[in-house]
Fold 3-oxoadipate enol-lactonase.
Amino acid sequence: MSETPPNTLQYRVDGPKDAPALVLGPSLGTTWHMWDRQVPELAKQWCVVRFDLPGHGGAPAVPAASVPDLAQRLVDTLDGLGIQRFGYAGCALGAAVGTELALRRPDRVASLALVAASPRFGTADEFRQRGVIVRANGLEPMARSAPERWFTPAFAAAQPAIVEWAVQMVRTTDPACYIAACEALASFDIRAELGRITVPTLVLVGAEDQVTGPAEARTLVAGIPDARLALVPGASHLAPVEQPAAVTDLLTHHFSTAWYNPSDTSTGITILPERLPSGPPAAPPAGPSAAAGQAAPAAQAAPSAPLAPSAQKTPLGPSAPGAQAVPPAPGVQVAPSVPVVPGAPGVPGAAEVPGTPEPPAGPSVPPPAAPVEPAADGPQDAAADAGPVRAEPTGPAAAGPAAAPDRYDAGMRVRREVLGDDHVDRSAAATDGFTEDFQQFITRYAWGEIWTRDGLDRRTRSVITLTALVAGRHFDELTFHTRAALRNGLSPDEIKEVLLQTAVYCGVPAANTAFQVAGAVIREETTPQE
């Protein structure tokens, strides 16, 4: 495998290079191997390009803290392969990348499939809290809880090898890249933009998905004009792994029948380049056409031919006598490929985790048929599923001179990102006529004028704020600013060092109380929930 430049993504190509391109995007904590069961069938018709998220599966650990950043890196990767127009299927975070491309680069996306997707994944607080847990404890808590989030209980009990595979994938992820991906999901929200996704879209969801379930899927279908819903029985979050045959059939049918080919003169779509730079005119689907002599990051092969060794995995495809696993590159920790489910369609010889017990022999559960539901929901359902819109304090001070930009909205955004929605919502609920002007003042000036400045990053501002609160003995505010410091990226050890410094310059009694206050917050915020 060739070296991956920092502005691109680690990838692998399967299938005929002259076929239309189909890109598969992974979920947070997984690798491109989550699509192992789909590739043999899809590669018969398409040039299949899979990619790894930064720091996943041995990919370079160059964090990407936003979905637009990930989408741009994918565009740069596909540009290097000579791929202009493509179909796209993504799971969870991979699906978010797909919607970003469909919104900002509709000239590139011919068809879209969203698996375990949502226009907004949970709440920003949930994902920033996950980052706090990982920063304090590493990825072990996330690895242990992954099977519960990803699979149905029956599947997890019947397939212990796949459960172990899932745990190992998370364990081998770079923590900083995982935290950055959590931040990307925290800031992702396209509820107001669904109507501008104009490519044909399949929304596929496991019927038992407790993370992004049928309700979120129906919100997408109601909001995207040309979308239909596919509900996969007997599947949870990682439906491509749990019900591979049903998912493969749905993807094959969708991309075979819903491929948008605009005319050369007009796409009928207004390109919105505010996040991604504008690209070349739309072109017919094309596969990789790397320049002569250029090294490809992964082997390109038809499904029946074994792939050349890569730095990441074993060959994909039917096993041959004497086939051997390819060792990882020195110093690179990699996640294993998905173990074979007995009786499940896919790759008979897919490699298993070294030292991982084989799944028990016995009949596998046949994948049930996946009914496709029409997009019967109306626009009114999209608004209901999107969740309530928060009312924010308003007042006479909100209307300023037209020449001076009002900093209230920017301040409220940063205030929520730093302190959390729950804290800000409680403050807003407690606001009355007496305190309203003060709440607007601190939102507009403290958060909108100071915390939004570029001169210091948020970690540094948290260090300064903690010190100032200890010096002023404002211990009530120290409580929620300790929580904010964790969300802004300070580790518990770094907060300890800040408080030790305050003991010298602000007094031992003040630091003593600060250690008690901050310690209680840190224990509460960094203890994984069982």
In short: Residues 170 and 513 are 38 Å apart (CA to CA).
